[in-house]
Structures
1.
Amino acid sequence: MRWAVPVLLGVFLLLGCRPRPQNTAPGDAPLRVMTYNIEDVRTADLRRADHPRLQRAAARIQHLAPDVLLVNEMTYDQPGDPGYRDGDPEGHNAQRFAHHYLSTPQADSLEGLSYQPVMLPVNTGIPSGFDLNNDGRVVSTVPDVPGSPADGSVAPQTDAGRAYGNDAWGFGTFPGQYGMALFVREGLTVLRDSIRTFRDLRWHEMPTAAVPVDSTTVEPWYGPDAWAEMRLSSKSHWDVPVRLPGGAVLHLLASHPTPPGFDGVARRNNHRNHDEIQLWVDYLSGAPYIEDDSGRAGGLHADASFVVMGDLNADPDDPSSFRSAIRALVGHERVNGAVVPTAGRQNGDSDLDPEDTSRWAARIDYVLPSANLTVQEARVWRPRPAQVPDVPVSDHFPVWIDVRTGP
């Protein structure tokens, strides 16, 4: 970890401030809610405590000290995952990250953070038994998957892995890849018995479903049997309620819709990305078709406070994606869409706009507060290119807001 000190010194000079201490005060203290796509974190990476990229990610998280953190692209460990060991509990990777990295100071000037992890099953890499990419074969056997390079960089994909992933319910070269993990600081209460998930919700249940159509044949892309079973969520959609010290409950609405690309003539991923975001619009509007994985119907109650968070893979201003759903979500009457996190003075990238959250110049990561929350600050954290070591943490940047309940 000795390398972390000069890296963090550069970060401190860039931000012009000391690391934020983790909030442990009772009452209505500001709550920092953050989302961060760390890019393809695998079980083997999390079993070790000296993974260079994860140490750098943890250093950034410790510097920003969110009270609530969503990490996208962390493997949900389970059978079929190359790093999973028979007999281990499933979904333990969030606990590994909390223990090996977040609780351990990554520099002398940083403090370890104490979190309650929440990790739930996802659709990525789960074989469907259907030929979802219409290449004439059904691929249901997990291929040999390359391990992560020793330098901590992201592992490459293979043709066999892509063939398997394209027939899975959500793209993943093995079960659980690209999952989600939520971290809630000690002192807040995760209402675990009230968590709602929508992993199994069928796409066709959405009355306004954007059905992918093969532009060459003008026929539905998915056959009737596949469409009847096709899941809407490429990973999952979670509603995780958390009780704050003052007694208020904040609903964390977490998801990671599929990227709107890599999909051919039917643009099936564009359609799916649109409808995965539309699900949150409908959830906030109380659409009657919505039913969670436990069988409970209906949307989020009208007076709830919430934050919609995650890598939504959609920019309201990007003409390459189906923009109506993300625009509807940002403009929803229950959402304070006027809050747009920006990089501000941290922006050292001339080709990025202040609100861009990815290295390819797009706003795709969100922490959207409900209109009944008071937002004190909203930021995108971006290091200057000259201050980034050879192995970047991710192609995304951390995005966070500081909020209070009530006026």
Note: DSSP finds eight helices and 14 strands in the chain.
2.
Amino acid sequence: AGLFEADSQACCTFLNERCEHILGSSLEEVADTPWTELLPASEQARVRNSWRLAVESATRFAEEFRYTRPDGKQLWMRAEAGPLRNENGSISGFIGTMVDVTEFHERATRNEFRANHDGLTSLLNRDRFERHLRAALSGAREVNDRVTLLFIDLDQFKQINDTHGHQAGDIVLKAIAARVRRVVRSEDMVARYGGDEFAVLLNGIGDEATLCGIINKITQAVALPINLGSCHVRIGSSIGMAVYPDHGDDPASLLTHADKAMYSAKRKRCDKALSSQT
């Protein structure tokens, strides 16, 4: 840990060698500036207020914050300090430690991402998507808005797995995930719902023509050839739609309606394919 001492204004009066290494600056370079002002603008007010409260109440200071060194390296830091008193018993400053906790934060971020996203496609996973759906419905009720749910199922995906192997199937799933993500808006939610099924949450799109346009774009994007390295494959999709509040006012009702609509679309495609063969 880096050791430091600072006065009540947060100006450093001592830094050990480790603390200078963490900060990327010597004591001489930072002594005249409160160390809280060395932080990114987004962190300064919060940490400064915490330091001020510690001084006023003569209690321990402890905060975690982002920090950018002079060489541009970005860190997560944790600072803890206890009060120092002068001969009159009043607070003269603080003595404490600074620790680089970047690795811990990066690990926590990776763990959080893995908990909420599909490992293959990096899309939202089913659980996280349903939480977003519940939140979207709650918001839509308050402002009398509409929410649209799309279910996408890939046609003949098993045939690709059986013919070209599961690695090829993974390539197809990743390609489809990227295409659907590009078609919709950045604020829309896309998830791998399970297997070869995807789900899309569209907020504030209630116009039927607009919805049909989005569905057509997804259908066309999915149908483009996919390069497997040794060959190209094509795959179709069946899409079911459910709109709040038209088809339900809770997640379960909308999910059920979209699922049934998707299987209905799949049956129609199969029937159409059979009739064309005969």
Note: The chain has a mean pLDDT of 92.
3.
Amino acid sequence: MNEILDENVLETKTNENQINEEIIKKYRLREILASANISFLFGSGVNGRAFPQLIGFKETNNFLDEKYIGDSNSFEEKLNSLDEIDRNKANELFVKEFNIAEENIDMKHSDIMDVENLIENTYRLVETTENRQDSSYKVNIFTLNYDDIVETILQNKSYVNNVLSADSYKKTNFFDVIGYNFKYNKKIPTFITAKLHGSVNRGILAQDAIIYPGNKKYETALGSKFFELMFLMKEELIKQNAVLIVIGYSGNDEHLNGLISDAIESSLTVIWFKYDNVKDVIPETIRKHGDKVIVIDQLEDKIGTAKRCSNIIEGVFKECL
């Protein structure tokens, strides 16, 4: 029985490798990524099952169900319908549950290991490929998640990383600094982790330091600060040879979609990974740009999008050797 299972796994992996090779060739990903200014956009789906998504916050969802009058199943719709008092109560419950989940993150979870492998393969690609401009040694990770999974991975890998939030980015002088190895006289890949909607601080999420889900997310005192951080993102995405790799993002943030669309018109290439080929819908604002948006469909034997992206980048890296 084990031999049969091993053969099935090997066949599945072989099929995926063949599909990935075809994708790399079809979309010329070697040429695109080997000299690109690479940025990632991480949504909640990037963490897979390793960290609860909105539906996993039981107390918060129960409270919303008690208060909501309507037929929508949307977390955001329910939250938007509340008056100020109940909305603050829902926010308190959300932050409490989030901090419990944050405290219990398993960094050895297979889905987090997929994110780690993705970051490592990106590092190897940037470090190895030649003819790079100085700016292309910087890899931006724009994340909508509050957790510190990405930062912890980068710290554990001892990669150069600078974390930006709405409150910190004006205080840093390191956003445009590229790491340099003086022993070997060469530049080294340098990461920027930009927390677009807020971040934990020393493992704790503060209720007044984040943008909450929903269509009223920017109608807070924090809104203007986060818009400034998004403008910084736009500056990165309109650079020559800029590529944005989208993983785990639902496409429901119109402000962000508009920013990406504007950058595409300025030459940005978007590579969008789908987790579900039917349910995942790329916003029309972005989809309208046609060939500038490369859509990577899910495999028949579904795997996480971080793993899917990691395997393709590994394939590109091997072709560059």
Note: The mean pLDDT is 90.
4.
Amino acid sequence: MSERRPLGANYRKLFASATAANLGDGLMSVALVWLASAVTRDAMLIALVGVAGRIPWLVFSLPAGVISDRFDRRKLVASMDVCRFVVVAGLGLLVLRYQTQLPTPEQLAAGAPEPSSGPLLVTALCVASVLLGCAEVLRDNTAQTLMPAVVERDQLEKANGRMWASETTMNSFVGPALGGVLITVALAVPFLLNAGLLAVSAALVFALAGSFAAQGAERAGGRTRIDWKGEIAEGFGWLWNHRLIRTLAILLGVLNLLSNLAFATSVLFVQEVLGLFEGWQFALVTTGFAVGAVIGSLLAERISKRLSPGTALLVSIVGMGVGLLLMALVPWAPAFWVCGVAEGVFVVLWNVITVSLRQRLIPDRLLGRVNSVYRFFGWGTIAIGTALGGVLVGLGENVVSRDWALRGVFVLAGLGHLALLGYARREANSETIAAAEAAATA
């Protein structure tokens, strides 16, 4: 029945909003790192820009969950898009002012002096990344809590799968490819275009019909003080006492740490190991992930049913680990792209299964808070992995060649994935998942 029933007008608006916002994020994913690589070749400074955007997941995730459960979720999502519009537009204007003074990454790699505006631009990138990260934490956490209010429970895999397909296509395929082309026109263009897309996204979310406050939530509205400690503790306690959700949060945290250990300096890997110094080449070689993610999002529901959810999660971990190892050991652009396809399939398979499980298992009144605790564990480690990746490359090139320092973080990340299999098989198997779902509907 869920295959034939339409997902509804609200879902179409939410889907269009996510498409616009993620197209903008895809543009930024290329523009930010390319701007950083045109300012400095220091792996740790480039990683610092990434860390700045991930710190909010460590310090703001838990309060964001409380806010998601206390206020109208539709207004929160749209308001965060407005905030991101302001920050991105300001950053775009700053880049427009200085873009003619910047050398190309290839010129810097060949020994050209770093631009005098470099410290200002690195600082601006870090500040903007922190502000955007804070808005993203609240926006993304709240957006996931909207879905159960938009579609029926038995449509969640279908709705999430389509959403992942669109988000990943825009974020990792269309956006980066378009960003790579636009960089050759002017470095400020991706930033300014993203600002316009965020404005469209905000308008679409504001247009959602209905009420989107958590069921049974006390509407603060400035009248009721928020018991931050108590409400965070309630969400934390629920997650920690739920064996399956706790396990998935821990696994996601370690997986994200390992992946970002590798990808923190991927722009340098693509430029110096693969020899691709054009913006469009960088964008093109990273589209493999997007292609795989689209495939994974379309097949995730079918794969999960065919293999069972627990087996599908184990296959995902193996696939991600092997893909990272091959990226390091076969440093050839087409091979890197093919490995990216595999990574995309397995990452989205993991995400569709685990997000749908959370939406079914967590009570609506706690969904925002438990999601925020889950993301605190699962996404907070991204900042740690990103920082550690930059440090390891910086230290590694004093021991081995720069080439192998950049490859080595991929090797460590791949081996780390495979080391998680025993824990995942014991704690997140199909029997555990079935028992958790049965208990939630009892």
Note: The longest helix spans residues 118-150.
